[in-house]
Predict the 3D structure of the following.
Amino acid sequence: MAYPYKKMTADDFNFIRSVTSPERVWVGENIDYDYYKDEMPEYGVFPPELYVEVLNKEEISAIMAYAYKENIPVVCRGAGTGLAGGATCKYGGIMLSVMRMNKIFPVDHKNQTITAQPGALLTDVQAAAAAEGLFYPPDPGEKTASIGGNVITNAGGMKAVRYGLTRDFVRCIEAVMPDGSIMNFSSNVVKNTTGYDVKDLIIGSEGTLCILTQVTLKLLPAPTCTCTLVMPFNSLEECADMVPKVLELPFIPTAIEFLERELIDIVERTLHKYFPVKQGEAVLIVMYDASSRQELDSAVTAAAEAALANGALDCCIAGTPERAASVWEVRGGILEGMKADSVAQEECDVVVPRARIAEYVKAAKTIALSHGIRVEPCGHCGDGNIHTELLRSENMSDEEWKKATHASLTELYALSKKLGGQLSGEHGIGNGRIEFLEEFAGPRMIRLYKAIKLAFDDKLILNPGKIIEFNK
């Protein structure tokens, strides 16, 4: 059995230095505190014994082969922007950063793909594609995330309605296995039915199965026109009821988001970012991309007519890049605004069928308030992914907050399951939601998860204690 893992010694430290470089290795108290946690320290703060920045797959291979032999846990870290406590050293050991592996290779125009190392930033990959007249659509809220982190967590974002998730754009993956072997999963082909689809299993595995060292991504022709609409409604229920109406139209929206007025007020008050539409207790934000002005105008006209026919107070067209930016800046500032408006935060990242959004949000508010917690739901209503933000008030003690959030989350996850939803829509399980997974998924599914983990990592050394836990 892997656990308890080996406590690292001076010999182990020296070996890592010998296969990398002493200038890229930090030990013990010399490791910066930022590497103890990800973007949600509430989900665990764990110090690694050694932190190393690697330059290539050969260094990763040497480290993993040694760790496998010596029974030392390893956690791979990208930009550290995760929201599930995934990139943390729960059992000590080695934290391996791939952020220096940030090369982006020239766009392959014949195959319409781009290849990058895991430490390349999402924004840089998007910019490299755009410079060649192409488009990488996945657009999660955290733009400073690494592309490897996006792949390994199957990042979503607001444009998933039209374009899908990161998974839909991954052609092939190069990775290092827990024993140090280097493998390729699939190749730069459009379709593949050769054996099990292991590539898709790795995408979203949260660093528990292998370490990604290179990824090839599909690109699309860049849209030439875009427009954002804001539809204000008197209630959230009316706002949510509009979602299927938008999706029934013969034009596929790029993004559909909802915001309640209370949340807009928080962003305006704390961040001084101002929403251009003052009407309504809730607003629906709809974006369209198109390849021609005629196509875009047709989509906008149809959506506006449908909105006004279904109870919208207005349909405001953000007709300039500046006005559209002001809309999306408020949407993008939600997490930062809530952090400024509360002592602490907890998030329930469920996804429910789109037809049940209003039902979920209404019940979620009742559940949280029954435990003395203020709740602010928002989210990607085009795909049913609702971010239910639980906010701590100043008068709550640590114990009261812990008890209230646990009780609220237990009920919220049960509500999601009852409505036909899932535990997490895009942030993943990591360490933050692991205690709720077995109850949600059931014991048979957990046994299947464990079997998959052991097939890749029989010594349980790669990101242990995330998604599933063997060491109870």
Notes: The mean pLDDT is 93. The longest helix spans residues 398-418. The two ends are 12 Å apart (CA to CA). The longest strand covers residues 225-233.
